[in-house]
Amino acid sequence: MSTQACTETAAKEQRPGKFSFLRLIPKFDAIYRQRLDLRGLSDTALKDIGITRSQANAEASRPSWDAPSHWLR
Question: What is the spatial distance between Cα 36 and Cα 30, in angstroms, rounded to a whole number?
């Protein structure tokens, strides 16, 4: 692919106002997997990152689409 084609593709992807739900699916999947991993951490590991078991379970129970907007960029 030429440099110009790469630049044009990048410009199209950054176009404001253009929204594609399909682009969010991999991000939702990653959030889902991270929350599953969080639920599986030991109490020692949770203590290392500074959260309690109840906080970890609360975060893990949230749906994938319930994430801060900066996670979805």
Answer: 10
